[in-house]
Predict the structure.
Amino acid sequence: MQEFEKLGVFYLGKEYDLAARKLQESLVLYDSRDLVTHGVCVGMTGSGKTGLCLSLIEEAAIDGVPVIAIDPKGDIGNLLLTFPNLAPGDFRPWIDEDEARRAGMSADEFATGEAKKWRDGLQAWGEDGARIARLKAAADFTIYTPGSRAGVPISILSSFAAPKGAARDDAEALAERAGSTATSVLSLAGIEAAPRSREQTLLATVFASAWRDGTDLDLPALIQLVQKPSFQKVGIVDLESFFPSKDRFELAMKLNGLLASPGFEQWLEGEALDPSTLLYSAQGRPRVAVFSIAHLGDAERMFFVALLLNQMVAWMRAQSGTSSLRAIVYMDEILGYFPPVATPPSKAPLMTLLKQGRAFGIGVLLATQNPVDLDYKGLANIGTWFLGRLQTERDKARMLDGLEGASSGSLDRAEADRILSALDKRVFLLHNVHADGPIVFQTRWTLSYLRGPLSRDQIRTLTAARPSAAAGASPAAAPAAAVPSQAAAAPRSSKPASSERPVVPPGIDQFFVPAKSAAAEYTPVVLGSAKVGFSDPKNGIDETRDVLYAAPIFDGPVPVDWAGASSLEVSASSLQRSPAADARLGPVPSPALQPKNYVLWQKSFVQWLAQNETLELLRHRDLKLTSKPGESERDFRIRVKDANRAERDAAVDAVRKKYAAKQAQLTERLRRSEAAITREQEQASQAKIQTAVSVGATILGAFLGRKSFSTSTLGRATTAARGVSRSMKESEDIKRADADAGAMRDQIKALDDQIQAETQQIAARYDADAPLDRVTLTPKRGQVTVQFVALGWVPDGEQGA
């Protein structure tokens, strides 16, 4: 197994020696959790910026991390060009035939060359077709084209829907989203309206007012509310004084022009702009959702990007906190969307993601050619900087200013300046606040085929075979057995319905289910409303459910049997005391006109609920996680994946921490052994020189013809002999030091292998989809509280759930 396949790390490339212009063997492995403090990639055209960012997205997909990628140029769709077989025929439909002609080749020859180029390139970086296959199997890749049917269309209607749950109760978040959405709509309609302008304030107030009431909006409803808002004051100023009706009508007409414009219906069809389904499939499989917006005009792009980012903010705030990377939001070419001075609609939600995303495991990655495009206040929240070749000295100076501010004085500006001036293509300076210091590296070969921007026809080809997204799995809390609908169970009387209300004895309450038509026909039923509680301290469950059932009424010996009741989709609070204006009511069976029967039916209602009302939940035994009431199996599996990743990261950290001291000890011993080798080699070299000098002097004395061995000559000979002995000893010392160093290297490798084996065991434990247990809860004694059992009237055709 390759070293870069470690858990929770992204393989980005190898270190690069700028002085020697030479690639090193040291891998650059980026801890995925470092991206929760966000990243920025800056480099001129041709610097390799797109390849680096696509490599990072590929690594995220392999690790099971979903990605939202906003693509203004059309390059990011290359992520779908993955060919595990690396065959020329796979490349042939995607080559640039003009480029082939310029190269003097036929299209087939050029495709063969591209296949070989990619095969050789991957092999040089330790990759192959098997890793491409692993990428394809790890996630779903989809290209969405808002406002177009070229790719998968996306509907913007959900972006006007009221926030749910806690997001609606957060006044600041609601106001921020309303303001940004208002600015986006005005921008799309070609209305220049700065924040806090009259038009923007009116639309923001309309959105906020509707959303606080839980009302979903669409463009027609928005146009109507502009003309006749549900409020009479804006702030403390009367509505007519703030924005007269005549001016509001003109604004409504401009918005109506947007609605009536040719092709606008394409914005309203397709999959919902809902991050929960964009990030994960119906089966809980992670997605890489590429939003190609190259075909849109500037105003349309801004409109869509702001809506998408607002949806991401709302989804983020509904998640639980985590220290692991849960999802990535990537935007290529940030020009105009995050400027240092202006405040386009995209800026506020993007700033929110940068400030708050860390707590929820949302990593933001921004890419640009020009540093002038970036708001440096926002970049203070970014912890990872990828800096490639820059266009001008001015760009380099601005980039160094921002990096110096973000590094809190720890950056050596002169050294960083020198490095940036010497960068080659695909070579980047990586400054990560979580690492010991900056490094220079060359990016690895991408698994995806980088053929350049995709045309609409090519996007259409890539997405043609994709099935439409299915809705999420049904909730785990659905009742165990379906109940027959009222339409099937209710007896039909031979007596005709009448517009006159029947006379009902005192003591019998009547409630009418709201009808869609003023001329509805009502069938009499017995309505039962109750609160049903479920508790399980072991699994942390304490849930109360409001239920409303309608049971048919018969004239036989068993007038009401709750086993034939159906659950109504309306709430008890929405029931009415009177029927619709032109309604007709069916005859009431005689048992329903006897007040004492309702006491008996209430007792049987309680018994029936206690036996038949259930709460079904899912349980992950190892993680001790239980699904929430109403949570679908898909959503619970996604939550399990997030918890799995967090526990996996913690387990890997524990393994690394367990062996850190021993690793440091062995590394230090190896350093000392290598230092000893160097020292012994130097001593041996000096001894050899001294020995050679002594031997040479002795030989020279003899050569000069002395007749007898003098004392000095004898001394030199003795010294030479000792030098030879010392040289032999030094050689033995070098061999022993070499052996010690080799033993240290063997121990370090054995320890690394042990760490690798333990982390792979962790991978096997957390990568597997463990089976889920089903937990069925029934109400305990005292957990069924009946609110009423009464005579009810249900419009025909609208009775059962």
